[in-house]
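Schema walk-through. Below, the input block comes first and the output block second. Nothing else is stored per chain. Lengths vary across the set, and this one has 72 residues.
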Amino acid sequence: MNTLEYKNFSGSVNFSAKDDAFFGKIEGINALVTFEGQTVVELKEAFKEAVLDYLELCRKNGINVQKTIMGC
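--- output ---
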């Protein structure tokens, strides 16, 4: 499986030929956080935004942040 990494988070990378779009989700957390883009550049940017949104949501709600890449 292809993955993206940002701020110690890992995101899956998938492609839908039907929709002609890339999509994925942050892996290894107890939440469903998805992202998508029409190009690889858009997908990478959407992943970074999804991670930052997740971190902000955790901060605002007093939730312990889960990180998907261990040992970092």
